[in-house]
Amino acid sequence: MVVPCALPISTPVSEVPDPHLASPFSDFTDQVFQNLRRADQRRWAGAYLAGLLITPGKKSVRRLAGAVSASPTAVQSLRQFVSLSPWDWDPVMHELTRWAERHGPAATWAIGRAVLPKRGDRSVGVHRYFDPSTGRTLNCQLGLGAFLCIGGLQVPVDWRLLLPAPWTEDPQLRRRARIPDEVSHRPLWAQALDLVDTLEARTESTAAPVVADMSDDPDAGLFLRGLSQRARDFVVAVPQHQKVLPVGERTPNGPDPVSARAHVSQGNTETVLVTAADGRQQELRVQSVLVRLPGARAGATPEYPYRLFTEVLPDGSQGVMWLTSLTHRRLDNVASLATRRHGTTAAVAGMERHFGLLDFEGRSFPGWYHHMTLVSAAYTYQRLTHRPAPRHLPCCPTPLPQHTRERLHLADR
């Protein structure tokens, strides 16, 4: 998505650090940023990426610039690149997905969240959000990410920013945050389906099941219905009050919907050996039962049943409720896939600690997507190659003459 820019970037080519190093880093940046239309944009993209990889501690734009360039104007140029330059992040994410797939087939597609705490009300999409993982209500941005699980690692390859209705309905807020005209408020379940559709269009394999935690979304049923309509297998955590239909009961008007929590206790209980993505194994007691989803059209062919399952905790209470279309798989295999939700949490935590996920104010819509794209690229590169960070980035700090700067301004308009 190309977003018009009110303030054009002016980057003297002679001050742009050249991150074209020996393989594999240069090969990675050449592929992932090949669709950026200007050479200086591609070079600044590589420089920003290198900065994220080599800068210790907080990843402010000033510290990133100091790590990759000796130019006194590098801070301004790097800030303009990530916040103001009108480059399209969709092709970058597309190439990142293709590059990641070369490291092995994705066992699952995981949908996970990034909660980005903010101060004040200037950051695009900031709102009050109850975070179920911490039990706290935060002032934050909420990002929804798509992750490929490759060889036990989860890497982010796409994002959606959740925009509450006030941000899309207020013309002043839209203008201030540079939200494109075609972007509107969409609920979490619809954004999650959009990520699934995007992955299907970008990836070569379409067999990977979707793993997602929708246990706090009252509209999780709409997400499940959307996955079913797309013939996409899934393992999805649902709210305990999620309505399901018992299978096999015969009543004049059909069975009445019941809550997942009440109905799963009517199923079988067995002990299964669950294998996490990192290979660790654990025995769990699991209850499961076959169900259908309410809401099918009258007269429609009955859909195949799904399996509802939950862990029985040591105190006898129920854990997270899961619904899966993989009824043909062994329960231990499906329960193992459910553990992939911890992988997305760990990936987001790693991006926060080591790749600057939280170190960007994100006032504008394009700036937020630019930063998330670059952080995702840095994380994916490091996790899938295990290579040391690039060093010795050459640069030429001598600025260009004023008439050359003006020409670069005009080229961006």
From TrEMBL:
<dbReference type="InterPro" id="IPR038721">
    <property type="entry name" value="IS701-like_DDE_dom"/>
</dbReference>
<feature type="domain" description="Transposase IS701-like DDE">
    <location>
        <begin position="32"/>
        <end position="252"/>
    </location>
</feature>
<protein>
    <submittedName>
        <fullName>Transposase</fullName>
    </submittedName>
</protein>
<dbReference type="Pfam" id="PF13546">
    <property type="entry name" value="DDE_5"/>
</dbReference>
<feature type="region of interest" description="Disordered">
    <location>
        <begin position="246"/>
        <end position="267"/>
    </location>
</feature>
<dbReference type="InterPro" id="IPR039365">
    <property type="entry name" value="IS701-like"/>
</dbReference>
